[in-house]
Design a protein that fits this description.
With 468 residues, the chain is α/β, with parallel strands linked by helices. The strands form four sheets. It has a nine-stranded mixed β-sheet, sandwiched between helices. Strands 17-18-22-19-20-21 form a six-stranded mixed β-sheet, with helices on both faces. The chain has a five-stranded parallel β-sheet with strand order 4-3-2-6-7. The termini are far apart. Helix 4 crosses helix 10, helix 9 packs across helix 11 and helix 14 runs parallel beside helix 15. The chain contains 15 helices and 22 strands. The protein folds into three domains: 101 residues, NAD(P)-binding Rossmann-like Domain (Rossmann fold); 207 residues, UDP-N-acetylmuramoyl-L-alanine:D-glutamate ligase; 141 residues, Alpha-Beta Complex (Protein-Tyrosine Phosphatase, Chain A).
């Protein structure tokens, strides 16, 4: 048994976040040692060169006696219920906080500017980026990171002058954050994901609920009660793709979509209660689901005091993040959208339901891969309403076909390239070819990014061939 010396901080995990934790502790001149369950974690030699003299334990955590440590700081990829850590559940440290915390707990202690934080099963990267760009457009010194891009603790150095932190936070980060204390937070949606870590959907939701601890303002999805806080913050807004409630009848301030005529004819507008904000079709990101994302960002930006004109400019120009509902081409009246990040049913459901009502034609869905045991049947109803055909490939194509049988025309192909060729054959003006696989990519691709790049390149070739 290896004993962690008294008063020393133990960092568990040598991934990207673990390395950021170590850099932060070194800046604070706090003594620490590191543990990683892998026998030879990647980058171990580089770590030792950067932190000479720091003890590193590689192997089972059950070989460590942690009871005399100052505290244990776990990387997001490390389950706090892992053997060796499970016995520490409920134990408090010297500060009165839990003995086992994560990187965001350290960030909260050190941050000297307000925090805006976003979580959800899907779309959190999009809303985080939108809010960050809105802050810049409004003239704020903003630092954006967390689960997206730069680790939160590195922002303290890289953007030391920040007057606002905008963080994307995962359930893994939130479950080890005792109190975030953010100025504004958003819980966008909830669908099955990471159940191997959280046990079930209730456990996943409970981890995400931590985002509301100490928050002064919250934004939730009016159409997804699972996002509503168990303990509401002082001010709570809701967003919806329906007409927003307002006035005495509203339980909370609502942001939604309603028909408005500004003199150029009636059309859908983004609204804050009864106040029109901008035409819905002026949002560059395609689909109702992205208009919902825009409303969430607007609600947070409003709380932070951003001018509407600045926020509108961002929404009118923002094309989307790579592989997340990204418009790749609009050729011959057909839109090709890369949503390769749609690796679960909830993401694909949102993409179909969001795009379908905005099209003059139909959705052609390209889906398949490793389904991770998911239930694909929720996709049947929106495809019945909005789909022209589902073109299925990859390991779980047959499971998808069984779930969608009778709802939409089905074609099975070997791979994504064949799926794109089939889509090009059947697409009509007004249609949208949507790559949103509802599955992980690892059966045929190294990751979802490579899958998205293959789609981009294939679309470029198809468009070039069509317009020769």
């Amino acid at each position: 048994m290896v004993k962690v010396p008294q008063g020393m901080t133990l960092v568990v995990g040598l991934g990207i976040s673990g390395r950021a934790i170590c850099r932060h502790l070194q800046r604070l001149e706090r003594p620490f040692m590191v543990a990683d369950t892998r026998a030879a974690p990647p980058g171990l030699d580089d770590f030792r060169a950067a932190h000479p003299g720091v003890a590193v334990h590689c192997g089972p955590l059950t070989e460590l006696d942690m009871l005399d440590a100052h505290e244990v700081v776990v990387s997001p990829g490390v389950d706090p219920a892992s053997p060796g850590l499970d016995a520490l559940a409920g134990r408090l440290g010297e500060s009165g906080e839990p003995f086992v915390v994560g990187e965001i707990a350290l960030f909260v202690r050190a941050a000297r500017a307000p925090i805006a934080a976003i979580t959800g099963a899907n779309a959190k990267s999009t809303v985080t980026t939108l809010l960050g760009e809105m802050a810049e457009e409004a003239g704020r010194r903003v630092a954006v990171g967390g689960n997206l891009g730069t680790p939160a603790l590195d922002l303290l150095v890289e953007r030391a002058d920040a007057e606002l932190y905008v963080l994307e936070l995962s359930s893994f980060q939130l479950e080890t954050t005792p109190r975030l204390g953010a100025e504004t937070v958003a819980f966008l949606n909830l669908s099955e994901d990471h159940l191997d870590r959280h046990g079930d959907l209730a456990g996943y939701r409970a981890a995400k609920q931590a985002i509301f601890r100490g928050a002064r303002h919250g934004v939730v999805n009016a159409e997804d009660p699972a996002t509503w806080p168990d303990t509401p913050p002082p001010v709570l807004d809701r967003f919806t793709t329906a007409s927003p409630a307002f006035g005495a009848a509203a339980e909370a301030d609502e942001w939604g979509i309603a028909v408005h005529d500004d003199g150029s004819g009636p059309r859908d507008w983004l609204m804050h209660g009864a106040v029109p904000l901008m035409p819905a079709d002026a949002v560059r990101l395609p689909g109702r689901h992205n208009q919902a994302n825009a409303l969430a960002a607007l609600a947070m930006g409003h709380r932070l005091g951003f001018e509407l004109a600045a926020m509108r400019r961002v929404l009118e120009r923002f094309p989307g993040l790579p592989h997340r509902g990204e418009l790749v081409a609009d050729a011959g009246g057909v839109r090709w959208i890369n949503d390769s990040k749609g690796t679960n049913v909830g993401a694909t459901l949102a993409a179909i339901a969001g795009l379908g009502p905005t099209l003059s034609g139909r959705v052609i869905l390209l889906a398949g891969g490793e389904g991770k045991g998911a239930d694909f049947t929720p996709l049947a109803a929106p495809l019945a309403r909005h789909g022209r055909e589902a073109i299925l490939f990859g390991r779980d194509a047959e499971r998808l076909a069984t779930a969608l049988d009778g709802a939409v025309a089905l074609t099975r192909v070997d791979d994504l390239e064949a799926a794109m060729r089939r889509a090009a054959e059947i697409a009509a003006p007004g249609d949208c070819v949507l790559l949103s696989p509802a599955c992980a990519s690892l059966d045929q691709f190294p990751n979802y990014q490579v899958r998205g790049e293959v789609f981009r390149a294939g679309v470029a070739r198809l468009v070039q061939e069509t317009h020769r």
